Hints:
Blueprint: H1 5-25, H2 44-55, H3 57-60, H4 75-79, H5 82-91, H6 103-114
The structure holds heme C.
Amino acid sequence: xxxxxxxxxxxxxxxxxxxxxxxxxxxxxxxxxxxxxxxxxxxxxxxxxxxxxxxxxxxxxxxxxxxxxxxxxxxxxxxxxxxxxxxxxxxxxxxxxxxxxxxxxxxxxxxxxxxxxxx
Length: 119
Ligand code: HEC
């Protein structure tokens, strides 16, 4: 019986993580849409903010489960962590954990970083 305990606690952690993301998924706003007009500059205001808010903040928002790893709290919190964010979202695609971004979202995010994160 003793050696089941590590597996049990892992299962509990797993369930906690996913039950909470499920509940919060219902509160999520619609998927942010990349700027429609070709030639429109992707900005924090017209795109990136909504993306981080809807795809990351339920885990990385202030007081959320993964806030200790990276806290999303406005543009400065993104720009000061841009290398880690680019790496995990655009390169390894390990984030958003348990989800994914559309091709259009990835493209706009890439553009936004490449343009030095205009506000
Ligand atoms: C379901 C919860 C969840 C969501 C949604 C999520 N993350 Fe994470 N994130 C985590 C956890 C847990 C870790 C730490 C474990 C890991 O790296 O896999 C993490 C780690 C990270 C790290 C640190 C990686 C490193 O090696 O330094 C960054 C940066 C990050 N996430 C950014 C994001 C961004 C940007 C989004 C949205 C596009 C996002 N995350 C969405 C839970 C989440």
